[in-house]
From TrEMBL:
Annotated region (Disordered), positions in chain: 1-45
Subcellular locations according to the entry: Membrane
Membrane topology type: Single-pass membrane protein
Composition skew (Low complexity), residue ranges: 1-44
Domain WSC, residue spans: 54-156
Keywords of the record: Glycoprotein, Membrane, Signal, Transmembrane, Transmembrane helix
Record flagged with keyword ATP-binding: no
Protein name: WSC domain-containing protein
TM stretches of this protein: none
InterPro entries in alphabetical order: Kremen_rcpt, WSC_carb-bd
Amino acid sequence: MPETTATTFTTSTVPATSTSAATTSSSSSSTSTGPTATPSTDPTDLFTDMTAFGFRFLGCSPEERWTSDGPFRTLPNAVHSSDTMTNQWCMAWCDGQGYKYAGTEWNRECWCGHEFAPTRAPLTTIASLERCDYRCTGDNTQFCGGDAWLSLYEKCEEDEPCENQVFT
């Protein structure tokens, strides 16, 4: 008998102006038949939720090695490397310099920019998140991009819902 799996994801959001810790709830349910069915991965386990800090996760964006669109870096305006890198540090650093976008890459790099090329827009599939699988050097519970893949975040507008991209 063929195997069938159904998965449902729900997420909650916090306002962009929030200064308290986010309460994120997510639930998933799976129904399967067949002897080899395995549960699907919850996409919120594959990125760091930064909505409490005013940044939404857009996805895993390709860098120069995986594209032929011309730009060398997805976010070329500022870079900082540290063996204590976390997503919180990167978002705060880029925000403090007035950048709209921030991203982490290669465990320890933080990149900032005002815009990125449309060809660098992340895909919205759960599978696309697997490319940003490097743990941050400053907090191994967080993901900080991958090998030429950028965990891309966007600053939320004030008084607007701050929601992470939905991945299917």
